[in-house]
Design brief:
Number of domains: 2
CATH topology of the largest domain: Rossmann fold
Catalytic activity: UDP-alpha-D-glucose + 2 NAD(+) + H2O = UDP-alpha-D-glucuronate + 2 NADH + 3 H(+)
Shape: globular
Family: Belongs to the UDP-glucose/GDP-mannose dehydrogenase family.
Helix content: 40-55%
EC number: 1.1.1.22
Strand order of the largest sheet: 3-2-1-4-5-6
Pfam families: UDPG_MGDP_dh, UDPG_MGDP_dh_C, UDPG_MGDP_dh_N
Protein name: UDP-glucose 6-dehydrogenase
Number of helices: 18
Bound molecules: uridine-5'-diphosphate-xylopyranose
Largest sheet: 6 strands, parallel
Structural class: alpha/beta
Length: 458
């Protein structure tokens, strides 16, 4: 098939590369000329395991192309994916302006009928509105064909996006016509050979499924974070509770890890968008509002724990391991580490941070004077280097090499042996044996009532 993918963010670029990998002819279109030039030169602008090689090979073999020009790309196209960003507006609603800009252009320039598929995460009813928007433009130029619009939400996780796309848990196709249902079924058939879970439904149902899936996962995390706070007050280890409830097959183990809060480009934005949709329909979104509130409190937790351990933070040297919102990515959107950095900078602490891939994004994001003054240093080369004379180590992202570090070497580097374990990757007992004060999340720590009071005040 000839496929056009509009938008070269995570979803667009991964989808395009994976479709090309299956033998299709794919053109990626983006208005960002710099990004397109980078991609043409063989540079993939995001860190995503397996993506570089796949983009490079398919580009070399003439199956994957990059351009800023939508109109010429649409000749003989069979399927056109919309995969542009839908960021949060100030009121929490999803901003769909880019989706509708694309719809208008498709209506103006499509030379013949094709299936338009919306992959962006969009409010319920958007596929219908996109279809109407295209139809209006087609009518203006008296085009003698119609363009059906389907909804095909994407569930890939950053850090394993290629793997998720090639071997999905399920594919959801929301359609209102036989042509798009049939085209998409055949397009996805090779991805579903091992696990043939293709779910056909209406477009509105597909759109809400995407939001509901992310909101459900975020709810599990916030729920566990709340149980973790309670565990701290009760002297309970939340890790045992996680195993205790995860072993119930009705609950399962996934997404039950307490930690320093969820970040990323999806959960925070999608939870807010769903709250906004509920409110617009006169409903109070009690559960999701609590999920979001809990996450805000949770992100403040790292700073509170540090303060409790060190008493004051001005002039303290803090080592920070991990800046990305999760391992396997250089994405720092809504990362808990960013909130911690801001609090530490305001408190006058000095932070020496290590992350294998996210430093460049942080350097672009933070105020320049933090770096110029040396109050913040970023290191992508050596996790041990940032520990020199540190008063505490904070782990904000569970990168694999952090899991079993050389504790003797760490103890020799640091001034104080305090580890704030924001991802619960260390065993409290063995940390004690290594001679460290270990503060995890929900691991039955002392100072519990003080911590609870501060958490509630945050
Ligand atoms: C998520 C969804 O998983 C994916 O299906 C959707 O398409 C996009 O949003 P992603 O944001 O890439 O994917 O990462 P995910 O692995 O889901 O983690 C999101 C956040 O939750 C991270 O900050 C992670 O650290 C946190 N998390 C995850 C927890 O705190 N505890 C958990 O148990 C799991």
């Amino acid at each position: 098939m000839r496929i056009v993918v509009i938008g070269t963010g995570y979803v667009g670029l991964v989808s395009a590369a994976c479709f090309a990998e299956m033998g299709h002819h794919v053109i990626c279109v983006d208005t960002n000329a710099e990004r397109i030039a980078q991609l043409r030169a063989g540079h993939v602008p995001i860190h995503e395991p397996g993506l570089d090689g796949m983009v490079h090979n398919n580009h070399q073999q003439n199956r994957l192309h990059f351009t800023t020009e939508l109109r010429p790309s649409l000749a003989n196209v069979d399927v056109c994916f919309i995969a542009v960003g839908t960021p949060s507006c100030a009121n929490g609603a999803a901003d769909t302006q880019h989706v509708f800009q694309v719809a208008e252009e498709l209506g103006k320039y499509l030379p013949s009928s094709c299936v338009v598929v919306n992959k962006s995460t969009v409010p319920v009813g958007t596929a219908e509105r996109v279809e109407r928007c295209i139809a209006e433009q087609l009518a203006l130029r008296h085009a003698a064909f119609a363009v059906p619009v389907a909804s095909n939400p994407e569930f890939l996780r950053e850090g394993c996006a290629v793997e998720d796309f090639m071997r999905p848990d399920r594919i959801i196709i929301g359609s209102a016509d036989a042509q798009s249902a049939q085209v998409l079924q055949s397009l996805y058939a090779p991805f579903l050979r091992k696990n043939p879970r293709l779910l056909m439904m209406g477009r509105r149902e597909a759109e809400l499924s995407k939001y509901a899936a992310n909101a459900m996962l975020a709810t599990r995390i916030s729920f566990m974070n709340e149980i973790a706070s309670l565990s701290e007050c009760l002297g309970v280890d939340v890790e045992s509770v996680r195993l205790g409830i995860g072993s119930d097959s009705r609950i399962g183990y996934d997404f039950l890890y307490a930690g320093c809060g969820y970040g990323g480009s999806c959960f925070p934005k999608d939870v807010r968008a769903l709250i906004h949709t509920s409110q617009r329909h006169g409903l109070s979104s009690h559960i999701l509002q609590a999920v979001e509130e809990r996450n805000t409190i949770q992100k403040a937790g790292l700073f509170i724990k540090l303060k409790l351990q060190l008493g004051y933070l001005e002039g303290r040297r803090i080592a920070l391991w991990g800046l990305a919102f999760k391992p396997g990515t250089d994405d720092i959107r809504e990362a808990p580490a960013l909130q911690l950095l801001e609090s530490l900078m305001h408190a006058g602490a000095h932070v020496h941070a290590y992350d294998p891939v996210a430093c460049a994004n942080v350097a672009e994001y933070v105020p320049k004077q933090w770096l110029d003054s040396g109050q913040l240093t970023l290191n992508a080369a050596d996790p041990y280097h940032v520990l020199e004379r540190a008063h505490a180590l904070v782990v904000a992202t569970e990168w694999k090499p952090f899991r079993q570090p050389d504790w003797k070497r760490i103890a020799a580097c640091m001034d104080k042996h305090i580890v704030i374990d924001g991802r619960n990757i260390y065993d409290p007992l063995s940390m004690q044996q290594h001679g460290f004060v270990h503060v995890g999340v929900g691991r039955g720590i002392a100072h519990s009532s003080e911590a609870a009071a501060l958490t509630n005040a945050a």
